[in-house]
């Protein structure tokens, strides 16, 4: 159960990670979205904090590693 939860968390974090134009924008929004998704998924296994940390790290990495040409969901809300 734990491995499948982490796999779903990683896929969700990477899928939601790339919002913004610059690498910093995508890393920040990916980290925030990943942390939220990770906390929600982690709460099902009883450890929302660990899920948030793992999801945030995966989302930030996914956002930083994607280019604006590959995934661009528009201008971030804070700009």
3D architecture notes:
The chain is mainly alpha-helical and 79 residues long. 70% of the residues lie in helices and 0% in strands. The protein has 3 helices and no strands. α1 runs antiparallel to α2 (23-45) and α1 (2-15) runs parallel beside α3 (48-65). It is elongated and about 35 Å long. The termini are far apart. The model has no long low-confidence stretch (mean pLDDT 77).
Task: Provide a quick synopsis of the model.
By secondary structure, the protein is mainly alpha-helical. It is 70% helix and 0% strand.
| Sequence stretches where pLDDT stays below 50 over 5 or more residues | none
**How many helical stretches?**
3
Q: What does the main sheet amount to? A: none
Bulk shape:
elongated
Multimerization status: single chain
What is the straight-line distance between the termini?
A: 39 Å
Provide the succession of SSEs: HHH
Protein name: YMGG-like glycine zipper-containing protein
InterPro entries: Gly-zipper_YMGG (IPR027367)
Pfam family, one: Gly-zipper_YMGG
């Amino acid at each position: 159960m734990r491995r499948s939860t982490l796999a779903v968390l990683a896929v969700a974090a990477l899928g939601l990670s790339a919002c913004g134009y610059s690498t910093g924008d995508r890393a920040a929004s990916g980290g925030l979205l990943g942390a939220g998704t990770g906390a929600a998924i982690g709460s099902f296994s009883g450890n929302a904090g660990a899920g948030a940390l793992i999801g945030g790290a995966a989302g930030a990495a996914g956002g930083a590693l994607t280019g604006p040409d590959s995934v661009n969901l528009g201008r971030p809300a804070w700009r």
